[in-house]
């Protein structure tokens, strides 16, 4: 059985990983599509709680040909 401290530590690690992945997605989008405003994407990314989904979005951001295509994938 996990202690309370272990659960808090695990939650902290998960939150840190999630925040890092969001920042990585934004960095990729800002680098690949510098003319696009990513503020609305950032706000929406903050609502995604599933880290695996965020990881998939990060990989998508690295490969997708246009910002609009990323938005379409993101809306699904």
Topology overview:
Blueprint lengths: L3 H29 L6 H7 L5 H13 L3 H9 L1
Helix pairs in contact: 1-3
Please explain how this structure is put together:
With 76 residues, this protein is mostly helical. It has one domain (4-75). Helices cover 76% and strands 0% of the residues. The chain has four helices and no strands. It has helices at 4-32, 39-45, 51-63, 67-75. Helix 1 runs parallel beside helix 3. The longest helix has 29 residues, at 4-32. It is elongated. The model has no long low-confidence stretch (mean pLDDT 93).
Catalogue the unreliable spans.
none
User: What would the principal axes of the Cα set say about the shape?
Assistant: elongated
| Mean pLDDT over the residues | 93
β-strand percent reads under 5%
Structural class by sheet pairing and helices: mainly alpha
The helicity comes to: over 70%
Radius of gyration: 14 Å
Q: Count of helical segments?
A: 4
How many distinct domains? 1
Question: What is the number of strand segments?
Answer: 0
Query: How would you spell out the order of helices and strands?
Result: HHHH
- Span of the ends, CA to CA: 37 Å
Main sheet record: none
């Amino acid at each position: 059985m996990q202690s309370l401290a272990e659960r808090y530590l695990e939650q902290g690690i998960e939150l840190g990983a999630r925040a890092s992945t969001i920042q990585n997605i934004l960095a990729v989008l800002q680098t690949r599509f510098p003319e696009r405003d990513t503020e609305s994407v950032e706000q929406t990314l903050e609502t995604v709680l599933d880290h695996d989904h965020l990881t998939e979005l990060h990989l998508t951001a690295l490969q997708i040909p246009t910002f609009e295509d990323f938005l379409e994938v993101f809306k699904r």
